[in-house]
């Protein structure tokens, strides 16, 4: 495995939860093991995890996501610590310290705050900590639909990858990658293994959102486009088997890889 990569891994609500918001412990356990393994071989890892609103809604409202802003804020507040509690416990099994980083758009747009954020990330990564990032949905005053101003965690992941100059952004999602048409409606849809340039047709082929989360393929494409423009790699792959990340880092074909040239 190539050593010393900086990798941002993003996992969405529908990959972290099952049955209307209850936590998919097996998935998180596997993820914690793999990311710990990736870190142990000399890489730096940042995890961007959604799921706060989904898990909080399961705890407070039987999995029904509230529609009003303060309900969403309450769900995020309750769900976030439950999620972090579980991450902390599972990563501790593998001897890896984790940190919680909650961000709003101001934190990365204001020059002083941006520098402070970056310093904190650098310090954590230099000590082998895996920072776990989410949007700070509780202090968001405008509209939680804009999730702390980042629009969605797919975009937040690209913002974080840019901030820390990551080599690679990996989206763990409920699809195997990007297809040439929507695989839900077209059984003949084919996976695109490698993309060097994002075209309008790609956006057209992947309209729609995931049921519990806020992202979907379109927001991942947007993030990949942003990454490509900076010469950084993005991968969209299935979250079902996080161990495929090892294969990816060994250079094998996994999911869809967006890379220049
Ligand atoms: N920050 C939201 C949450 O933790 C999710 C945002 C997203 O999935 O894009 O529930």
CATH level-4 homologous superfamily: Acetylglutamate kinase-like
Q: What overall geometry do the principal axes of the alpha carbons give?
A: globular
Using only C-alpha atoms, the radius of gyration works out to 17 Å
Q: What structural class do helix, strand and pairing data support? A: alpha/beta
Helical content (DSSP H or I, runs of 4+): 40-55%
Kindly, what is the distance between the CA atoms of the first and last residues, rounded to a whole number of angstroms? Answer: 22 Å
Show unreliable segments.
209-214
CATH topology-level name: Carbamate kinase
Query: Mean pLDDT across all residues, rounded?
Result: 90
Q: Please trace the helix and strand order, writing H or E for each element.
A: EHEEHEHHEHHEHEEHHEHE
Q: What strand order characterises the main sheet?
A: 5-6-4-1-7-9-10-8
Number of structurally distinct domains? 1
- Strand fraction equals 15-25%
The CATH class is identified as Alpha Beta
Write the layout of secondary structure elements.
Layout (H helix, E strand, L loop, with lengths): L5 E6 L1 H4 E2 L3 E2 L1 H16 L3 E6 L2 H10 L7 H25 L4 E6 L1 H5 L1 H16 L3 E6 L17 H11 L4 E6 L20 E2 L4 H6 L11 H13 L3 E6 L5 H6 L6 E3 L3
Parallel strand pairs: 1-4, 1-7, 4-6, 5-6, 7-9, 8-10
Antiparallel strand pairs: 2-3, 9-10
Helix pairs in contact: 2-4, 3-4, 7-9
Bound molecules: glutamic acid.
């Amino acid at each position: 495995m190539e050593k010393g990569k900086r990798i941002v891994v993003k996992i969405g609500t529908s990959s972290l939860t099952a049955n209307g918001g209850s936590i998919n412990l097996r998935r998180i356990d596997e993820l914690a093991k793999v990311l710990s393994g990736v870190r142990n071989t000399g890489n730096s890892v940042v995890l961007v995890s959604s799921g706060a609103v989904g898990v909080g809604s399961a705890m407070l409202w039987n999995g029904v996501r509230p529609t009003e802003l303060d309900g969403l804020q309450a769900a995020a507040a309750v769900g976030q610590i439950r999620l972090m509690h579980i991450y902390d416990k599972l990563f501790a099994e593998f001897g890896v310290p984790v940190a919680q980083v909650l961000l709003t758009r101001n934190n990365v747009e204001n020059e002083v705050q941006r520098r402070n954020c970056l310093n904190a990330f650098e310090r954590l990564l230099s000590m082998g900590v895996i920072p776990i990032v989410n949007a700070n949905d509780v202090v968001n005053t405008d509209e939680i639909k804009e999730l702390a101003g980042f629009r969605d965690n797919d975009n937040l992941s690209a913002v974080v990858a840019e901030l820390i100059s990551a080599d690679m952004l990996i989206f763990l999602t409920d699809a195997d990658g990007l297809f040439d048409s929507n695989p839900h409606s077209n059984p003949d849809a084919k996976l695109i293994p490698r993309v060097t340039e994002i075209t309008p047709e790609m956006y057209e082929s992947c309209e729609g959102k995931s049921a519990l989360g806020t992202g979907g393929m379109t927001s991942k494409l947007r993030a990949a486009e942003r990454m490509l423009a900076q010469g950084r790699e993005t991968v969209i792959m299935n979250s079902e088997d996080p161990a495929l990340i090892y294969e990816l880092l060994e250079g094998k074909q996994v999911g869809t890889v967006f890379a220049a040239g």
